[in-house]
Specification:
- With about 130 residues, this protein is mainly alpha-helical.
- The chain has one domain (about 5-115).
- Helix content is about 65%, strand content about 0%.
- The chain is built from four helices and no strands.
- The chain has helices at about 5-55, 65-80, 85-95, 110-115.
- The longest helix is centred in the first third of the chain and has 51 residues, at about 5-55.
- The radius of gyration is 23 Å and the shape is elongated.
- It starts with a helix and ends in an 11-residue tail after the last helix.
């Protein structure tokens, strides 16, 4: 006689595996969607900073403490994530890639921070 207990255990294990695979797939897709939205958000923040600095002119006036003040105020409002350094990366992101769609949204924010550090004379907007 074949035990139903073994079949039930195998069926249950299959259920656990099926649910786990579905969950992992959904979690990965959700993470990619969030990453894509955040990359666009950081690009827009960089755009706002550049436009504010330039005030309609081709070049910005430097020597102001905009990023320090902005960092302080945004950290108070939203918590971490708005360090002076991170705001500078957002600014550089927009400056290096003025058309957001030219950057793959499969890249995460860490990848983009590394890309904007590249000083390549072949890139039209390189620092």
């Amino acid at each position: 006689m074949i035990s139903n207990n073994n079949t039930t255990t195998n069926e249950y294990n299959g259920l656990v595996i099926h649910i786990s695979e579905t969950y992992n797939s959904g979690f990965q897709k959700a993470s990619q969607a969030v990453n894509s939205v955040m990359v666009t958000t950081y690009w827009k923040i960089g755009q706002y900073i550049i436009e504010f600095e330039q005030k309609g002119k081709e070049k910005a006036k430097y020597g102001t403490s905009l990023l320090e003040k902005l960092s302080k105020d945004l950290i108070q409002l939203h918590g971490k994530g708005f360090s002076r350094s991170n705001l500078n990366y957002m600014r550089l992101f927009y400056k290096c890639y003025p058309i957001c769609e030219t950057v793959s949204h499969k890249l995460n924010w860490s990848h983009i921070c590394e890309l904007v550090k590249i000083n390549d004379q072949l890139l039209p907007n390189s620092q």
